[in-house]
Structures are given as structure tokens and as C-alpha cells.
Amino acid sequence: xxxxxxxxxxxxxxSADQAEAxxxxxxxxxxxxxxxxxxxxxxxxxxxxGGGLIIFTFIAGLVISLIVGWIIFPKLLYSKxxxxxxxxxxxxxxxxxxxxxxxxxxxxxxxYAGVPxxxxxxxxxxxxxxxxxxxxxxxxxxxxxxKEVPWLIYSRQPDCVFFSHAAHVKGAGMDCQTCHGEIGESxxxxxxxxxxxxxxxxxxxxxxxxxITTHTWESMKMDDCAKCHAEAKVEAxxxxxxxxxxxxxxx
Amino acid sequence: xxxxxxxxxxxxxxxxxxxxKCTGCGSCMVACMSENNVSFxxxxxxxxxxxxxxxxxxITNGKKFPDAEECFLPRPCMHCEGEHSGHSPCxxxxxxxxxxYSTQTGIVSQIYTxxxxxxxxxxxxxxxxxxxxxxxxxxxxGMEKFLSPNxxxxxxxxxxxxxxxxxxxxxxxxxxxxxxxxxxxxxxxQTACTQACPAGAxxxxxxxxxxxxxxxxxxxxxxxxxxxxxxxxxxxxxRLKTNPKVYYLSSRDWVxxxxxxxTVEEKRKGITSGSGSGH
Lengths: 251, 279
Description:
The complex is a heterodimer.
Chain A: H1 2-77, E1 78-81, H2 89-95, H3 118-125, H4 133-143, H5 165-171, H6 176-180, E2 192-195, H7 202-205, H8 222-231
Antiparallel strand pairs in A: 1-2
Helix pairs in contact in A: 3-4
Chain B: E1 13-18, H1 27-35, E2 55-60, E3 70-75, H2 89-93, E4 99-101, E5 108-110, H3 120-124, E6 131-132, E7 159-160, H4 166-178, H5 192-196, E8 202-206, H6 213-218, E9 220-221, E10 227-228, E11 233-234, E12 246-249, H7 253-257, H8 264-269
Parallel strand pairs in B: 1-12
Antiparallel strand pairs in B: 1-8, 2-3, 4-5, 6-7, 9-10, 11-12
């Protein structure tokens, strides 16, 4: 009996051991089965918060970069200066009889006078004509002292550019507005914006920092010249580029 | 300018320099430098670094008195056309499209703002007509006010050369536009060196126009790369087939022979540019 008992005991012990072992295995399996989704969940939440943070940081950084690049930088890039005298184009255009060319005229040799000098202004403004404070200041500060007005030229091109007004206005019959816009309609002069890096006027690149323009007068870059030249089928005389020769506009 | 071809027919501006008339006074060099804002250094003793768009060389026949003779040879840019239009030695090597050949004027241009100073063109030019700016130009105080506004001064690190006073062509064109013309007249476009020469040795004009003096002087055979038909006319290094637009005139055989790198043997046989070598 003992033996059998023992054997049974042993057997039961064995079976208990086995059961324990199975339980242990089960336990192990159970732990594995039970804990795995938990940790995954934990991991997932960690991933969610970490990923969200990364995406948030990325979007925030992108937004900040875009704001800096498109709004703050262009503002910093250009310094604003006021013209010495606030000139009223509209008022003058009503007074003169030869439109823009009354003051911005061609000389006989084909060169272009550009911004008028004091000598032309004096023709009418020897004395104060109207009641504008700007005119009074102009007469007192410049005419009386025989001093040229240091106008800031919106459309001044870099030194290496040769632009012929005669070729475009007399030769091709273009309007002033094509490049200069409706400046003749303006009642006051906008502030002159100078690129702090290049020293060029903002009118060269254009108001739109992305360079997208809807009118021909909104920017005066080389690309704008080239675009119009291509459309007008200006003779392609360059051997290198099969377009206009560089020397046409460069010096 | 709305239609193609409105600019009129193509010009081929060229120069004829009569070496029998040239006295070597150097007026052309001075006129060129002041016209084109050519910079100079405080110490100009090292001529290898000097910039001279127009340079007067002195050549001799190498003989002793009483047979010794000398000749002065002004050398601007030759504005080579090459074997086909625009195949100038410098234009074909420029990696920056900074130098270009215009089929409208035949002028080899140099755009300083495009040039990045690799100096391939200088190596390619057989006439030493190109110069490199090793320094930014420094003008003596007050001289800036006397610079020509029509020519942009060059900066350090770019190559420059004679432009046949291209700005004068542009100004002449402007005048023509004012008068409602498309063509410019011969006297309207003349280079500074031409006008400065007191001996009248330099002539400038359109080699395509049979009424221009340059054409009458050399009678270029435009069907054969502009080879001169005047036996006294020659071009420098004709045998390189650079097809230059600067012609020289001389009645002296040894001067014409000096225009190309003939071998002693060839010289002995009397082969010179004027007597029909080259292609």
C-alpha cells in the first residue's frame, strides 16, 4: 500500500509537480498573454505622445519658418525711406500737355533724361504756385538754394545693365505703363524700399516676395525683360544661348 | 521689335590698322583706357599684370644698321569669328556663358557679372587680348567722377577685354531710334582708339557694307572667312583660322611676315599672309 500509496503520493506529487509546472508554464504564458497588450498599450501611448510632440514641433517649426521667411525676413530685408518731397504725379499730369514726356523726355541724341532735374522744375516753380506744404518746402529748400532734389529712383537698375528707353519707346512703341505701371495716377510717392543686401530698389524684385506677378510693371528683373523679349521675338543673335546676345542689355 | 529682322541686316564690325601710318604714339591706348574705365595699379612696372585692352607692340626686322627697321603694332581684341559663326577661341571654351558672339554685330562680348574668373578664355586667346582683374580697381581720389557712365567698371576676379566700344554702338542705336532709323551710319559708331589716332592709322566700320572704308581698304572675301583680297592686308595668326575682324595693312614684306608664326624655312621661301598662305 505504502508503495502504492507512496507511488500514488509520488504520483500525485509528480502530477502536482507537473500541474505546478503546467501552471507555471501557464502562468508564464498567462503573464505573457496578459501583460503583452498592456505594454503595447503603454508603448503606444508613449509613441502617441512622442509622435504627436514631434509632429507638433515640426508643424510649429514649419509655421514659424514660414512666418519668418515670408513675413519677417522681407520686412527686415528692405529698409524704407521717404522721398525728399512728396510729389503728386496726378496733379502734374493734369497741368502738362505732353503727358509723361513733358518732364521725362528724350534728348536729341537718343539718351533719356529720366527723373527731371531742378532746371525743369524751375520752369514753373520759381515761386510757390499752389498751397501744398510739400511744394512750399520744395521751393524753399531746393529752388531757393539751387540744390538738386535727391530723388530715390524706384526703377534704378544695377550698374551692369544698359537699358535703352529709345529702343523700347521709340523703336518698339511701348507705353511707359508697361514697365512703370500707373504711377501717373498716383497722388503721393510711396516709400522707397531698399534691399539691405544688394542695395537695389524693391521695385526690381517686385512687391510680391514669391516673385509672382500679374502685371508687367510689378517687377523689373532680368527674367521679366527676357520674358517680354521672347514674346516679342526679339532677334536671337547670341551664338551661346540662341537668345538675345548678352551685350544687348549688359555693359 | 515686334517682328524678327526689324533690326536690319547683320553687321560685322571690324577694324583696319595701317601699320605704315602708325607712329607708336600710344594715343589709342590712352583713349581706350579712359573711355572704358580700364583700371590701373599704383605700380604699373609689372606689365604682365597690366590691363591693356589696346596694346601697342613694337616689332623689328632683327637686322643691323643700316637695314634695321621697326614697326608698331596696335593690338585690340580681334573679335574672331572662327570657322563658323561665333566659333571664337574664347567663346567656345567659356564654361559660364560669360563671353558671347553676336551674329548681329559680330562683336565678342564679355559679361563681367557672369564671369567667374576661370581664365580659360585667356588661355584660349592666341592674341593675349584678355586680361584678368587681380584686384578691385582703385581710382585716385576724385577720379570716380570722371569715369565713363556707359561702361561698368570691373571687379576683382573677372576677365575683361576690348569690346569695340560697344556702348558707343548702343548710343548710336539710340540716336537712330530717335530719328526713326534702324540702321546706324558709319560715322555714328566709331571706337575711341579710331578717333584718337592722330595719324589716322585706324579705320573702323562694317565689313559687310561695301560702302564702308574698312571694306574698301581690305576687300574681305566674306565667302572665305573674310580673307583680305588686298595684297597688303593681313591678319594676325591667320593660319590658326580664328578669322579675326582686325586687319592690318603694311607695304613691307617683313611686317606682313611677322603677322604669323612662319618657320624660318617658310620665311626663306617668301610665304607670307599677304601672298596667299592659310586656307
